[in-house]
Design a protein that fits this description.
Layout (H helix, E strand, L loop, with lengths): L10 H12 L40 E7 L2 E7 L5 H12 L6 E2 L2 E3 L3 E4 L14 E2 L12 E4 L9 E2 L3 E4 L13 E7 L1 H8 L13 E8 L2
Antiparallel strand pairs: 1-2, 1-11, 2-10, 3-11, 4-5, 5-9, 6-8, 7-9, 7-10
Length: about 220
């Protein structure tokens, strides 16, 4: 399976993100181990093997997902109205524990934070896919949560991997990625996770989803 990567960034934007990631001087804010204040030092979880079952019931009404990480928690308000199939699949995977103790495997400051791969390397999924075209007018602005896919897959296809947009405004992505919802609380946790990236663009320490809890389902 190909890595579930997003559309490559334009060269100019990629360069600006590289400068952002390299950052400037820091006068503190880290523990002795180099982990930022607010994050716990944890081991990277082992890969999860196996297949998961596609949800048979559709979500309706307000439903949120509280994502607990070693850097705190954030809440995703699931867009059950515009994305009933995608949100129902996500909720079903939450209930099966797919997301618990998994790595946030992709951190690109100023662009996206991505997780939800049971293998932890960007190549895994639940063993099935869902197709649901995102809203035609969708723009991926800061706080939008959507599902990752390979470039070869059709618009709106998703498995289990999701990303949170951290771009200051619009990430500049085409409306190809299935909508999941928006971060309604705890965006500071996403910012802490972003700060785990070192000057080489690689995480200095693991960022881990410890568990996900559904509210209102």
């Amino acid at each position: 399976m190909l890595p579930r990567r997003l559309t490559p960034l334009p060269a100019a934007l990629a360069a600006s993100l590289l400068l952002f990631a390299c950052g400037g001087d820091d006068d503190g804010g880290e523990t002795a181990s180099g982990v930022p204040d607010g994050c716990s030092e944890v081991e990277a979880p082992a890969a999860k093997q196996g297949r998961f079952t596609k949800a048979k019931q559709r979500l309706s009404g307000p439903v949120s997902a509280v994502v607990e990480t070693n850097c705190g928690s954030f809440t995703i308000e699931l867009d059950t109205e515009q994305a009933p199939k995608t949100t129902s699949s996500f909720a079903g995977l939450v209930e099966q524990g797919l997301y618990d103790d998994t790595l946030i495997h992709r951190i690109e400051p100023g662009f996206v934070v991505q997780g939800g791969d049971p293998l932890g390397d960007g190549t895994g999924g639940p063993g099935y896919f869902v197709d649901e075209a995102p809203p035609a007018e969708l723009t991926y602005t800061r706080g939008t949560v959507a599902m990752a896919k390979t470039a070869a897959e059709p618009p709106g296809r998703s498995g289990s991997q999701f990303f949170v947009v951290t771009a200051p405004a619009d990430a500049g992505l085409p409306p190809d990625y299935a909508l999941l919802g928006r971060v309604s609380e705890g965006f500071e946790t996403i910012e802490l996770i972003e700060s785990l990236v070192g000057p080489d663009g690689q995480p200095d320490a693991p960022a881990v989803i410890e568990r996900v809890i559904l509210r209102g389902a």
